[in-house]
Every structure is written in C-alpha cells, then in structure tokens.
Specification:
Length: 190
C-alpha cells in the first residue's frame, strides 16, 4: 500500500483513478461520489440556462457547475458544489487546486444523489461556516427543496421548505431575480 504525503495527495490520486467521480475533502475526510444520473444533470443544465436568462452576466455574475470551493474547516478541505453562482471575477480568488475563496460565491446548489446525507447535513454546516449567503438543496430523497440563507456565527437559521407545485424565490442577495420550479429542481424536467 502506498503512503500518501497528505490528505490532499490522496484525494488527487482518487480523482485520477476514478474518472467522473467527485472527490471532496469535507471536515478532514475524503468523500467520493459516483457520477450523477441523467435527471441530476438535466436539472443543472436547466439552472444554468435559467440563470443566464435572468441576467446573471449583466449582474456581474457567472453560473457554473462543478468548481471547487475552498473551505475554512480544515487545511485541505474543499467542496465541489453541483452548481454555483459566483462573482464574474471569481478567477481572481483562486486559492489552490482549482478551488476558489468562499467570498466570491453568492449561492451554491446541490441536487442529492447517493450522497444525500453529505448535502443535507455535512454541507449545511460547512457552507454556513464558509459564510455562503444562499444554499439550495434539491432533496430528491425526501421530495423537497430546502433554502438556507444568511448564516450567522457560522450557522444557517432553519431552512424554508418548498414542496412540489411551488417555486423557490432566489434571494435578492444573489443578484438575479429568479424563481425556481420545485418540480424541475427535483425531476430535471419541465
């Protein structure tokens, strides 16, 4: 067995050996998630288009999938949210390993997969500690969308829950006026 020189090196090696998998270091532990299913990816594609149509670029923002978010929870910690709305100049906030400083993230969104407990528990904590203003979870396991916003002292207040047939209003602090269909967030289809 090879001994890695660091947790980050071990994560890099897993990333190379498991193409298509998402490798993150959350609270000092490596988390590997298998490739997402089709509806998951359709949801993300729809969201990118919706944000573009809502004027993200004109508002000085970019909507991107799968970029790294450097976390304050450990020396090598980083997450790779499914989708992020970031400041247009986010490139200037590169920390390392293709991860960017939390202050450029306006909103992160996760669509649950097999790793749903990471999205609905672990990431709620770490995104709040990173002071991410808005965190949206399309919780396909529980058929609900959760909106966390405005963390205080490293914790989000209780989320607002949205059910099928409702729309999730993106908070003004993100910088775009947009309502997201719960059904589309959960199913990937209109």
């Amino acid at each position: 067995m090879l001994h890695e020189s660091s947790l980050a090196d071990a994560a890099d090696r897993l990333w190379e050996e498991l193409p298509g998998h998402r490798v993150e270091i959350l609270n000092g532990s490596i988390v590997v998630t298998p490739p997402p299913d089709g509806p998951h990816q359709v949801t993300l594609s729809w969201l990118i288009v919706a944000c573009h149509e809502a004027g993200d670029r004109q508002a000085g923002l970019k909507t991107v999938g799968g970029i790294g978010l450097w976390l304050p929870t450990g020396p090598d910690d980083y997450a790779v949210p499914d989708l992020s709305v970031v400041d247009a100049d986010f490139h200037d906030a590169l920390v390392e390993k293709n991860c960017y400083a939390p202050h450029v993230f306006r909103m992160v969104l996760e669509v649950t997969s097999s790793n749903w407990t990471n999205d609905t528990a672990t990431k709620v904590d770490i995104y709040a500690r990173a002071n991410i203003p808005v965190y949206v979870i399309a919780d396909r396991r529980h058929d609900v969308v959760l909106l966390y916003r405005d963390p205080v002292d490293g914790k989000y207040p209780d989320p607002v829950r949205y059910q099928r047939g409702q729309a999730v209003p993106v908070p003004e602090s993100v910088g775009v006026a947009l309502e997201l269909s719960v059904d589309t967030l959960l199913d990937g289809d209109d």
